[in-house]
Amino acid sequence: MPTQLLRTQVTHTPPVVRALQTARETWPDESDGKLLLHLIEEGERSLRDERAAEQSDRLAMLERMSARYADLHFESLDSIREGWPE
């Protein structure tokens, strides 16, 4: 089918064959090309979800750390300097 979009050729290496066999369990009536598209879409979704979970975990950790030190009060730098000789 004519297209102006870039095309990519994939060699059926053993990992690609395994991925296609796994995908065929979910989408049994699809061609290899369609299975590869499904795998790409699912992989991208998985990576995006993983990144979002990591970011959420990192924010939760920062909030816990922040809460741990919320009751600490530090003197301002100016008040500390008041006691220093010039």
Structural class: mainly alpha
Per the principal axes of the C-alpha atoms, what is the gross shape?
A: elongated
| End-to-end separation | 81 Å
**Describe the biggest sheet?**
none
Radius of gyration of CA atoms, rounded to a whole number:
27 Å
**What proportion strand?**
under 5%
Q: Count of DSSP helices?
A: 3
Number of strands: 0
Mean pLDDT: 92
Please write the string of helix (H) and strand (E) elements. Answer: HHH
Helix content: 55-70%
Low-confidence stretches: none
Structure description:
With 86 residues, the chain is an all-alpha fold. It contains 3 helices and no strands. The chain starts with 13 loop residues before the first helix and ends in a 5-residue tail after the last helix.
Provide the fold topology.
Layout: H1 14-26, H2 32-68, H3 77-81
Please supply descriptive tags for the structure shown above:
about 90 residues; elongated; about 65% helix; mainly alpha
Q: Quick recap of the structure?
A:
The chain has 86 residues and is mainly alpha-helical.
